[in-house]
Design goal:
The protein is an alpha/beta fold. About 45% of the residues lie in helices and about 30% in strands. Strands 1-2-3-4-5 form a five-stranded mixed sheet, with helices on both faces. It starts with a strand and ends with a helix.
Length: about 120
């Protein structure tokens, strides 16, 4: 399945909305686009909205971990958005629920940045 990525950026914040599947075939495209956004942010907040992601494999999970590391190294924050119980269960089983800040929607993830967690 094709991967579609929409990005909105403004003043130290970016929201990447991902649609489709993240697997070893299309993960390099996601990585390339996200690393460009991360570099432009120079810290700040990156919200990755996985609400419309139907599937993610270990390659995709590894890429998300790499995004988090790069954001932290640059003094920024990465937050994930997910609405699928199946995705939430995957993050729980893999232990990544404890690694990532996960929210129900992008507005909530962004407001936590403004108001503190």
């Amino acid at each position: 399945m094709e991967l579609k990525i929409e990005t909105k950026t403004e003043e130290g914040r970016a929201v990447m909305t991902i649609h489709g599947e993240i697997d070893m075939y299309n993960a390099p495209n996601l990585k390339e686009k996200a690393l460009s956004v991360i570099e432009d942010l120079k810290g700040g907040l990156l919200v990755v909205d996985l609400g419309d992601v139907e599937y993610i494999d270990s390659t995709g999970l590894g890429i998300l971990i790499g995004f988090r590391r790069r954001m932290i190294e640059g003094g920024g924050t990465l937050r994930l958005v997910m609405r699928s119980p199946r995705m939430e269960k995957l993050f729980e089983i893999t232990g990544l629920r404890k690694v990532f800040e996960i929210y129900g929607d992008a507005a909530e993830a962004e407001s936590k940045a403004a108001g503190g967690k």
